[in-house]
Structures are given as C-alpha cells and as structure tokens.
Structure prediction request, 585 residues.
Amino acid sequence: MSTKKHALIIGALAILLVTVSGWLTGWVSANSPDYYHQVQRNIEIFGRVYQEISRKYVEEVDPGKFMKAGIQGMLATLDPYTVLVEKEDNQELQIMSSGKYGGLGMRIGMRGGWPTVVEPPFDGTPALKAGIREGDRIIAVDGADTKGLTVSMVANLLRGEIDSEVSLKVERQGEAEPIEFRLIRAEIIVTDVVYVGIIDEQSGTGLIRLSHFSRNAGKDIEKAIRELKKSGLQRLILDLRSNPGGLLDAAVSVGENFIKKGELIVSTEGRTAAAAQKYLASKSPVLEELPLVVLVNGLSASASEIVAGAIQDLDRGVIIGSNTFGKGLVQTVIPITGEAALKVTTAKYLVPSGRSIQDPKRYLADPSGILYHPNAEEARERDNQVDAEPLNSKDAEDDLGTPYLTANGRKVYEKHGITPDILIDVEKLSQFEIELLRKTMPFQFAVVYAAQHPELKRGFEVSPEIIQAFKAFLAEKEFDYTSEAQSALRRVSEIASTKDYSAAIASPLAEIRASLLAQKASEFGASTDFIMEELQKEISAKLWGSRAEIEATFDDDPVIREAISVLNDGERYESILASAGTKVD
Prediction:
C-alpha cells in the first residue's frame, strides 16, 4: 500500500472515530465517568488494531473490507436492525425520507434472471409517457448490459438528476427486436397508496391499500378518504397487509386520519431521556366517526403495527387478519459520511395501552424493504398459527403474554405484534405453489398470454383452456423443483451408499421415489384453484393495470369478505369493540 493511500485510510479512520466518539459523548453523558473512559479506551484499541494490521499483516489487506468487517462484527452483537447503511441502501432510505427522487416512475423486479418492469408505470411519469409496459425486460441502461446486476444496481442506473437523459433497451413479448427508449428523468413523488375505491356500492364500503409508510403516506391517505367521501363513503377498510412499515412520523400522520385530536397514537421509551417521546394526534380526523376495519397479516410490520395497535387500543376500529410481524423497535439514522449512515436502535415504541409489540423471539432481518426482508415462509407459517381457544381463556392468556386494556376495557396482549380482533386462518401454500411464485411462472405466462389475447374483457373467467395453456407453458419452460421429501430421500440414498447397504434398501427406495413422482404429477390438479386466482390477477394486471389486478382478488379474498360482513352488521361491529374478539374459520 502506498504511503499516501495509507495516510488517507488512517485519516478517514480518525475522522470516523472522532465522529463516533463525539456522538457517544453526548449519548453517555448521563452515565458514570468510568463508562465513558471505557468507551474512549476501546475506540483507541480498535483504531490501533486496524492500523497495525493494515501496516504489518503478512499480506496486504483491503482497508475498506477490513474496516467493514470490524464494524459488522460489532453490530452483529446487537439487534438485527442496527446496521451500517451504505450507498445503494442509503439512497433508498433517502427516498423514503424525502418522499421523492429523480427517475422514470416504474417498479422493477427480477424475473427470469433479468430486471423486469413488474407493475404498470406510475401515472404521468416518463416511463408511462414513453410507452413502457409491465413485463418489459430491461436488457441495457445507457448501453450497459444489465444481465447479472441486482435490482438495486439497475434501479440506481435508472435514477439520476432531474432533466438528465437515460437510454433503455427492452425486450417485449411479441416484438422480434429489442425496443430502444430515450427518456428524460423527472421528479417522481413516492405514492404509498396503491388502491382507492368503493368496493361495495350498496353499503358505501371503501377500500384503501397502503404499501409503505414513506414521507407522504399521511397526506396520501387523507386525499384518498376525501375522494371516497365524494363517492358516497360510509365505512372504510384500510388494508395494511404485507406493509413492511417505514417512518415513525408517517405512522403518526396516517393515524391522525382516524384518531381524535389529542389522543395518544404511540410513545417511545429508551435509554436516554431524549428517547422518551409521546406522539399525539395533532388534528381532527378526516374519517371522523365512520366505521373502520384494518387488515393485517404476518408481513405487516413496524409502522403498520403502530397504526393497527393505536386503532385497536383506542377501540376506533376492528382489526381483522392474522398476527403481525412483531417489530416494535425504533431506529435513528445518524449520518457518518456522504454515502453512509448508521441506522441504530435507540428506543422501543408502545401503543396507547402501554404495551410493546416487539416479538421477543423476532430476530429475523428488518422487513422495512430498504435493507432486508423477513423470511416470508416463516411468516406464512406464523400466519397459520392462530389460537384455537377464545381470547378470554386462561390458557390462551398465558400463551399470548401480558394483558393490557383498551379504552373500552378489552384485553389485548404484549406478545407477537398485534393479534387481530378477528383471526382468519390463512391457507398454507403447498411447496408446488410456493415454487410457482418463486420462479414467477404465473407472471411470465401472463405476459405472453395477454399479448396474444388483447380481446379479453375485464371480469373474464379463467377457463379450462387457459389452465391447459398454462400447463403447457410450464412444460415448455421445463418447470420443476426438488421437494423436501425428494431431498430427504436423496440424503438417505447417499448415506446408504457410503455404508455399503444400498442394495438392501434399493427396492424400498425405488418404491418411495415412484410414489413421490406420482404425487408431484398430481400437484397441478390439486392446485387448480390457486392457479386460477393467480392467473386472473396477473393477466388482469398485464391488460388493464394495477387497479384491475387488485380488484381481481376481491371475490376470493376471505379477509376482505369478512371485513365487509362485519361492517355491514353494525350490531356485531359494536359488540366486537366492547368485548373479546372472536375467531372465524
């Protein structure tokens, strides 16, 4: 390493250590001098170790990787939400915080190994005006091949200064040659409300689906409610299912649309006096006293749980669905450099009854959508694990955790996030169905089918012919997977071969193998209903956009059906808010 480069590294290290030292000085000022002395001493040791290894180790070390390993090692001893946010992830955090960015206005995801437009572009954006469609595969940005790049990498290529140019090359189903676009980036305002509409005209029931809690979430919800009121809104469903959360201020802003002015929405408590805060509704709610149902599931986390917990604790509405994720910790973002920030847990938040919703066993990754994602399969398993006994059972209380009281005196519990007032069993997906989604087979088929059948009308039914076309598509794509049972059988076979008793168990293994293959062959037929629902949704999205995709799920959604049923029965709605919840199978 050159002397100049070495000096720069040590200098940067010194700046970082001084920054951290100064921050810690303020943070631990209330602690004993001995504690502060230990902090200072250990910072010196850390810097000295870094310096000596960088200078004298037998082989030259990468100074950036070496420093990052040290930081990650320290953070690994804490909770999984305290992390160093760098470059791409820091940009995502800034977008959520500001509520806007310079870009093209489309969401991309990985489909078939390529970055692909996974939703219709946002209204009024450069992508929509240029004619980019859902299903378009982005194969190059400004002449750079995108094969092998992550979604975050491609997203960063698409973003940039407002009014700057970017060129795209896309592959589109039905087009023989790639299509080239030259677009001008514009200011894109992040919109977290993905659906607004009256879904039951007779009762005036409206639905708002919120996907995240970015800077503008509260204003977006207010605007949506005002629009629905003009259309005859009499009762509302707020859908927070699979909403991973976001900003604490955004959660408060969303909650203010439903909760009376002056009421406590959430409070925080932590190690320092500054961490103890109370967040009250600062304005009159735009929904006023209209009946309200909130939908949640195992992937509703953080800010979603703040809103659902406040509405439940204040008896403002009925919560329906399955147990939420259980993330009740508050992170503060502390800038470290121009491209990096420290996201550190500084407090936990409490909903109005005083209960924490942090799951003590919840040590999965952060579901915020910025850095990490929760284990979806584990969360899906958890969705299925609802309590079979009434909530007033002594055994159920012991299992649920410490009881607290809502405004009306109902018992709620400090464990496993938010437990809904009405628990709905979620049907567990088979491994075959999970693999179909994981390999995006319904999405890929819908892109092809929609391009070939533009004559379809909204509300179409998935016919046997479409089902057979999908089955042929799976065969064409050579869709397959290894089941858990097949993996276990393979391990048994491998062990047997090393222990010289393969011949003795060859016949039983062959019978089991044949049985498993027969079972796999029958899985398509057993999953017909699931396949019909997915194709209805995906084909609708490709032909008529995101709104049609969401509406295509309503008839087969047991949680929405239950929400409408509760809202249409005023007596039942009021009784739920006055007594223990019930369970619906």
Q: What stands out?
A: Residues 3-77 form one domain.
